Amino acid sequence: MRPSTQTLFAPRSASAFPTVPHAVAIAAASFLALAAGSAAAQSNASAATPEAKAPVQNQLDTVVISGIRASKEKSLNAKRFADGVTEVVSAEDIGKMPDKNVADALQKLPGVTTTAGSGGQGGYDENDRVSMRGTNPSLSLTTINGHSVASADWDPGDQIAGGTGSNSSGAARSVSFLLLPSEIVSQVVVRKSASADQLEGGVAGSVDIITRRPLEFKKRFSAEIGLQGVYADQAGKTDPQFNALFNWKNEANDAGVMLQVFDQTRHIRRDGQSEITWARLSPTTPAGQANGGQLGNKLYISGLINSLFEQKRQRQGAVLGAEFKVSPDLTVNLDAFHSELKASYTNTRFFVRPGNSVAASGGVVPSEVSLDGERINAARFNNTGNAMGAQLETQANPLAASKTQYLNADFNYRASEALSFKGQVGHTRAQGDTFLYWNYAFMPNTATAYSFQGMDKPVQVSLPNGFDGSKLSHLPGNSGADNSFSQQRSKDRENYGQIDGEYRFAESSLISALKFGARFAEHEREGSRPVKGAAPMNATKNGQVALTSLPAWGGASFPGNFGSGLGGNPGGVGVPLIDPAAVVAWSDANFSADPVFNRPPSGVFTVKENVSAAYGLAKLARDDWRAEFGLRLVRTRTQVTTNTGVPCGAVTANNGLTYGSPAQAEACKGFVPPGATLVTGSRFGNFYIKSTESSDTQALPSASFSYDLSDKLLLRVAAAKVMARPDYSALGSTLSAFAYNPANNPPSTAAGGNAELKPVVAKNYNLGLEWYFARRSVLSAQVFVMDFDSLIGAGSSMQQQLNTAIPLALGGPAVVPTLVSSPAATTGRSRGLELGYEQPVWGGFGVSANYTYANAKEANGNPMLGASKNSYNLGAYYEDEVFSARLAYAHRSASRVGLYGLSQNYLAASGTLAASANYKLNDTVTLTFEGLNLNKPVTRFYNAANATVPFDATTALYSSGRQFYVGLRLKY
Length: 972
Prior knowledge:
Layout: H1 5-8, H2 22-44, H3 68-80, E1 86-90, H4 102-106, E2 112-115, E3 129-132, E4 140-144, E5 147-148, E6 185-191, E7 205-211, E8 221-232, E9 237-249, E10 255-280, H5 286-293, E11 299-327, E12 330-342, E13 345-352, H6 354-359, E14 367-372, E15 375-381, E16 390-397, E17 401-414, E18 419-442, E19 448-451, E20 460-462, E21 484-504, E22 511-532, H7 580-590, E23 605-622, E24 625-645, H8 662-668, E25 677-679, E26 687-708, E27 713-724, H9 728-732, E28 736-739, E29 748-751, E30 760-771, E31 778-803, E32 814-842, E33 845-858, E34 870-879, E35 883-892, E36 895-900, E37 903-907, E38 910-920, E39 925-932, E40 938-943, E41 953-959, E42 963-971
Parallel strand pairs: 4-7, 29-32
Antiparallel strand pairs: 1-6, 2-3, 4-5, 6-7, 8-9, 8-42, 9-10, 10-11, 10-41, 11-12, 11-13, 12-17, 13-16, 14-15, 15-19, 16-18, 17-18, 18-21, 19-20, 21-22, 22-23, 23-24, 24-26, 25-26, 26-27, 27-30, 28-29, 30-31, 31-32, 32-33, 33-34, 34-35, 35-38, 36-37, 37-40, 38-39, 39-42, 40-41
Main location: membrane
Signal peptide: 1-41
Protein name: TonB-dependent receptor
């Protein structure tokens, strides 16, 4: 009997978050009982007893073909007979596609777009996130074999505070596909319409990655091994790639074991230019007054950064599966997955700051100026007596890494010819780690120059007089505040249990089946910063020791071909490179790692969720149509724990307070609300830890209808109410990113989360036609509308807040009026059209194409984050008994990524070209080739025109070059 809504959602203490939900234990017990019972029944049953008749299903004629054509036929078969709006990618042979992770394969589908990094990262050479139908990646759900998969990131900006945008990223709901190599895939099912029996969380749709199962292999023993070398032309390095699969099953085909392993290393060099900022030259400065005020109020480039990013990525992991057919009626599957990405990197950033040059006391008057209307296209700044015109930042993150894993058990049990059950129970966890060192070195009295070359090209910068290494200096005032290290960690984990039942009626009945089930999950996401290093505390514990040295420069400089892939010459000749190992050694020797004194409060959060859900669904069918009607009830209880700074107990040289003393705690006790915990002793200020609890219940109806207009033409209609929970950092980010303006006009600013955000809720409508006009061919059109009743957008409010950016010399930190940017509820709509075409055209040749139009806007008229209005994919392939090849091009138009400064920031239109080829030497050995990013794509960000800068202004460009994979595949 299905549990009642009242029983399922019985009240519980809001603060109770048990370690393992009761449902997991119940599901596990049921699982073992069913296995034991069926095993006993099997021993007494006659071996001749026939299996119950399986329900009749429509299917294409079975044709034994391997490779690209088999993959496409299997995909179309699954798409055609799916109950909802579905796309399918099948991989019959490992490595047949020019794809290195699952996201690479998905970007070829209509309505699906990918990004190679969040806005804060910029972009790299491998697809990372997947989004659907003009929404951001957090509104698409990713599962493996129908269950959740925990996710984490190696990039510091994705581990803790922030929200998706170009100047911050943050801990998101979206799954990083960097940990999911394409070799693990048997099939990927993309659902664009919701059904009551599907896991909630995908407003735009869901991606279910189906891995291989031991008993699905044809042979008793199968082995597949892939050996490749990958050459990255911009990094100029070659690395090994290895994957292997071994599968065994017994002769009775009722027990099998599969082991799959992968070890894939590659190097990345990303050349970039970022934080390109235009400003108006103040008419009150010497530069603005020179030559009769000719340059006053003219637009000039006030700052930019040339960045050289170098990384080694090593992805290692394994899939282990065991499948048992305990009886003709019970199948049990156990599977485990582990994937780890070691991602150590260095990032050298050369700052050119004309804004500092002209604004300094006795500011520099630029020379060699080139004017184009009101825009200063070129200028030179001699920077005599100026310490702030140029600087160098060296970042080293030797321990950057991320990993994910799961342990899952599931079963399928046929209780009778009509009634069947299936269930899952499992645990998944992920972790992202960072130990980031950084060092700022200033370059005083160093002349700089820039030359604007066009909006789609980098700005050329130079050091006209070269560089004298003896001029590298520490920060003014020897504060050491911007020379440090920071340890960060994100943890994501979930325990889950699910049980589903299905009762099938006779074929003559209008109702073909009733489905019902329940799911329980306990989820926790944590972003932590255990320590942020600084100069040691002095002996009296009321200040820090001054730093008077810098890491030594060994004479190295930027590579001569720096920026060659950016479409212009950004300049790098003579720019110094400091050995990252020297930065690490210098930091370890000079900085304190005291966990109390160096405990930062910002960016830290914990989000706990207890989720319970139940559903019922009716399936109806006749010869030429089928339909579904269902309802899913979901309750989410949330606890968000964050830190809040308090304006008390500041340590100065004369007030007698010391860090961590009882007197410091006494000074702050009046600022701590009930239920909160005070923390003192940190050089970043005192703060308290407090939890906020909330609950939300959603009823999610769904319906779909499929009608065979003819034996080749299919009509689909679907509607559903859908939901997705807010990003973790949107809920839990501590106030951070403080900026201080002494004049308070514009006001001081900060950013943080909103612990009381409600889920994103939308109504999803679909109407489409699919014409299967020939074998392995389809022409389809789909119209979609998503009406968002609740959408998370950008908001702001004036608040009295403790601003930690106010210097000690000015009485800081202090409470001042602060404009706080935080996520807020809004509404919006995404509507559009998807067109798809696929057909073998002649001989072994075939083509595919699709186009998606998505008009996705928030209530304020801004495009939704991540929405590309136009995207398309073009593909062609050839295959015969010996040789196969595939070419694929994916393009997406511009999309909004958030705010940069006070302007809307966009990711410019871009496209990627990929190719693969396979030559079969014999039945065992195949030679392979794959090429990614063959068109050397440039990732460009720009600010939309505004009142200050009346043109679309490029803010960043990145290029990572091409990657070539050559090797062989062994198959037995």
